[in-house]
Amino acid sequence: MSSEILPxxxxxxxxxxxxxxxxxxxxxxVPIPHAVAQANGVVINxxxxxxxxxxxxxxxxxxxxFQTRSDKIIGVAGPSSAAMEMAITxxxxxxxxxxxxxxxxxxxxxxxxxxxxxxxVDYLSAKSRPDHESATKPPHAITLEGVQxxxxxxxxxxxxxAQGETSCGMFNSILPEIAAxxxxxxxLVIVDAVCTLSTMPLKMDAWNLDIVVTxxxxxxxxxxxxxxxxxSETAWNIIETRENKCPHWCLDxxxxxxxxxxxxxxxxxxxxxxxxxHEALRLICTETLENxxxxxxxxxxxLQAGIEAMGLSxxxxxxxxxxxxxxINLPEGADSAAIRNYMVERFNVEISGAFGxxxxxxxxxxxxxxxxxLFKVLYALGMSFKKNGxxxxxxxxxxxxxxxxVRDLDHxxx
Length: 414
Description:
It is a single chain. By secondary structure, this protein is of the alpha/beta class. The protein contains 14 helices and 13 strands. It has helices at 13-16, 34-39, 49-66, 80-91, 105-116, 144-153, 175-184, 233-241, 253-262, 271-287, 289-310, 336-347, 371-387, 394-405, and strands at residues 23-24, 73-76, 97-102, 120-125, 158-162, 164-165, 170-171, 188-192, 211-215, 227-231, 325-329, 349-350, 359-363. It has a seven-stranded mixed beta sheet, sandwiched between helices. The protein has a two-stranded parallel ribbon with strand order 1-12. The chain has a two-stranded antiparallel sheet with strand order 6-7. A hairpin with a 4-residue loop joins strand 6 (164-165) and strand 7. It is globular.
């Protein structure tokens, strides 16, 4: 028998992709605008004059999106989790203490990363409920009193949290108050704004946040694989004056600043991804944050009304509900995979399952918040439940969606 390895049978990418692109209505990635898609097909010199101009514009537009005057804005050639890891590993090391505000999978990830570099980690969990109920009941909301008590009991160097917990659809409505309390106790504040930046208000400077992390593939409506962080001067001073080395090379913020601050070589930048990010940020600036926030809120609340009118229930109570990712309870006996697969096969619409929870999730970020996408996903959802033997009132749901949308159709002009 020959030991030579032969090339596999040729299969073109066009043979692997569906004939009609799926409408991505899950928790991310999301559909991207045409301008973003076009930019993602371009490669230029990552150290040339044109890229210098692009980087300056990306940072300038990011200051608007983050609502910060800080020029310490850095992109990462990696997913949002890589940006989270840059945040954690540059300001924490063995001997440092961090309090993790844990609302679910992604806010918890900060703690996992901090443990990995030897920091002392405590969790203030919103998941204080019996195990047998964990798949059917949403997390309890974090209270300001609970945070104040935790910070009074022990001194922490860093407090981490998510503005929106993508995994379960929870909204941290007291983020500014938590941040203010953390600062009173001398802690840095790190925030995951991956699914919320540009979909709802976040004011980095006004709320005194130290590091804010976001990714391209959700709220910004750009491509996956390129992320952005903004650092306060307080956080940057800690990074510049730390005595021990950052455990990562690619994720070392001071090395990354050579490229993002001085246009010098760090590693080969993800050129198409940065160009795509430029266009995504440009569209945000053109729309304006105020109009974008209103469009997202109107879209999500109209969809929520349609879901409930159809006869389904939402996982999180309204006062703690995240508008950018809507979590829907699965009725008893419903098969999440069967519901979602039928939506894909019959309607070319994709939504998300969950991480051990008995829910399905629909995204409301960026280009997902367009009227034609709302009608398509709601109809596909209702028909899939019917196909799988569950009685839902599709007509009532569609009517409720329409009623709530017509209040301000100008926000949904494509």
